[in-house]
Amino acid sequence: MTTHTEPKPFRNHELTEISDPSGVRYERKSVFDRDGNVVEGLHTVWITLSNPKQFNSYTTDMVKQVILSFRRASNERDVVAVVFTGEGTRAFCTGGNTEEYAEYYAGSPDDYLAYMRLFNDMVTAILHCDKPVICRVNGMRIAGGQEIGMACDFTVTSDLAVFGQAGPRHGSAPDGGSTDFLPLFVGVERGMQSCTLCETWTSYQSKEYGLVSEVVPVLEVDGKVVRNPLVVTDRWMEDGEVVYGLPKTGEELAAGKQLLRSGTVNLAHLDDAVNGLITKLLYTMPGCTRKTIESVRKHKLAHWDRNRETNRSWLGLNMMTEAVAGFRAFNEGPKGNREVDFIELRRRLAGGERWTPEFIEELIPHPEPVAAGTEG
After folding, report:
1. Mean pLDDT over all residues of the chain?
2. 124 — pLDDT class (breaks 50, 70, 90)
3. Are both 289 and 361 inside the same structural domain?
């Protein structure tokens, strides 16, 4: 005769509690079966970067909260998957908070080294999560946002989103994951293009390159869902050139902008696609799925674990030179002029100038002074 004993209370495996949740939201949401019904007793966790005024760029405190959130989600026994996303319709994440970089970390390599320890731990927390991780891209996924997005297992994106890097244009190198992960996703040539030239890809290009799993139209015009009107999506080849997914130009672009302004963004369509993917994951063996995900992640981890510490050291030292100029230019420069004069920088370095505070100050664009007697 089998006897049943009362289950023992679960142990709490959290390192610490999140005392101030501002900046990152942790929410438990419903899971749906194949018929669209709520599944009782099971959930998904949504971790949301909540800094929309700064395009969901992450501050030091937000990085710590993301780490704790992924660890907490790993330990939740009733969670099927984790959704990592951003607030609003403009950005998933545009990377590190350049205001904090410029005003606190610039010129402080040891402090930035400590910060990069946290950043590395954030990427590792995603790669070590015991649940499948879906990056829900609701807008721009740029720079460090691209890096933490690629650490996820799946990407489901709004077709209005763009993807890319920013490091070499703003005083850094994309060594927080992009130089490790991008070649695995898109190949060495395209990875090199993205990392060095900092040109963005549309969501349709990113799907074609293998960077994302699914692209979802989210723009509604006159009650109908339409594809991104700023991007070529109605033809594949033109005069022998592949044009599908490329940004429109000229009159087509002007017409697309007008159509975009006339519509509204409804991310419920994106959420339906995300929930659909979670439903597919629901109908798999949890242990086998976890092991499969861990095995596929090893290809990312092999590069990440080999390079992250030396990259962290270099990024810290870089906060004495190009990063100071680049982040301060972005933070202090006027709209439309937030980069250093690259040609002047190269000429002066070629002439033997040193990275003195005066040299850095002269590289940073500043707003034109308002003439006396005129209104600003």
Report:
1. 93
2. very high
3. no
Structure tokens at 81: 């998957």
- The position carrying tokens 């629901």 is 282
Residue pLDDT, tens place only, 238-290: 888 889 999 999 999 999 999 999 999 999 999 999 999 999 999 999 999 99
3 state DSSP class of 318 = helix
- SS3 category, 18: coil
Residues 58, 183 within the same domain: yes
Look-up of token digits 């949401």: 29
pLDDT tens digits for 166-179? 999 999 999 999 99
- Identity at 190, one-letter amino acid code: R
For residue 236, is it within any domain?
no
**Six-digit token string for 260:** 């975009």
192 located within any domain: yes
Q: Which domain holds residue 356?
A: 333-376
**Looking at the structure, do residues 153 and 197 belong to the same domain, yes or no?**
yes
Phi, psi (rounded to 5 degrees) for 32 = -120, 145
54, 71, 83, 87: which is closest to 18 by C-alpha?
Answer: 71
Report the CATH number that the domain containing residue 138 is assigned in CATH.
Answer: 3.90.226.10
In this prediction, residue 75 carries a pLDDT of 95
